[in-house]
Design a protein that fits this description.
The chain is an alpha/beta fold. It has three helices and five strands. It has a five-stranded parallel sheet. The radius of gyration is 12 Å and the shape is globular. The mean pLDDT is about 95.
Length: about 110
């Protein structure tokens, strides 16, 4: 099962109903009480420590990705919450989370 960590740009996990049914979804602010301006490196370190994948709109995360650490899913900005939910839910269906560890993937 996918374990996803939403960056601060996203709404609360409960908004993404389809994705929540298929994955464990946490948010850096609502679940880990990190500030919206938390540095990308800190978010990536948290995801790596917790065995999660970062979900972000920030393409800058790509440069942080290391082998044997968290993976990153990068979404296009400008999507509605419903479109984000559809894209994420469809993408993770029938896939193995381990295939995305240490990789940056554009969805």
């Amino acid at each position: 099962k996918f374990r996803l960590l939403l960056d601060s740009a996203f709404a609360k996990p409960q908004v993404f109903k389809k994705t929540v049914k298929k994955a464990s979804v946490r948010h850096i602010r609502h679940d880990f009480n990190l500030a919206p301006e938390t540095e990308d490196q800190e978010i990536y370190a948290l995801a790596s420590q917790k065995g999660m994948l970062v979900v972000t709109l920030d393409l800058g995360f790509k440069k942080l990705v290391k082998q044997n650490a968290a993976g990153v899913f990068m979404l296009s900005s400008g999507l509605s919450n419903q479109e984000i939910d559809e894209n994420l839910s469809n993408f993770i269906s029938n896939k193995n989370p381990q295939d995305y560890e240490g990789k940056a993937t554009k969805i």
